[in-house]
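=== RUN LOG ===
request id: a7f3
mode: sequence -> structure
chains: 1
length: 65
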Amino acid sequence: MRLFLAVIVGIIGGFILGIALSSFIGIWGVVLWNEPMGIKFLPYFTSFICAIIVPMIELKSQIRH
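=== RESULT ===
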């Protein structure tokens, strides 16, 4: 159950992180090159990566305690 919850938190958190990072990249693209830039599917990529990384961190913290 904790593993499933960690995956869900990773997906949601990664998606939010991807949206923020994509906006940040877009703003800097406008500032530097006067053209909005960004990575098209960045929120999906970051949610996938965080869905893998967050449970790994959770399992490592369980092993320590």
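=== NOTES ===
The mean pLDDT is 94.
The chain has two helices and no strands.
=== END ===
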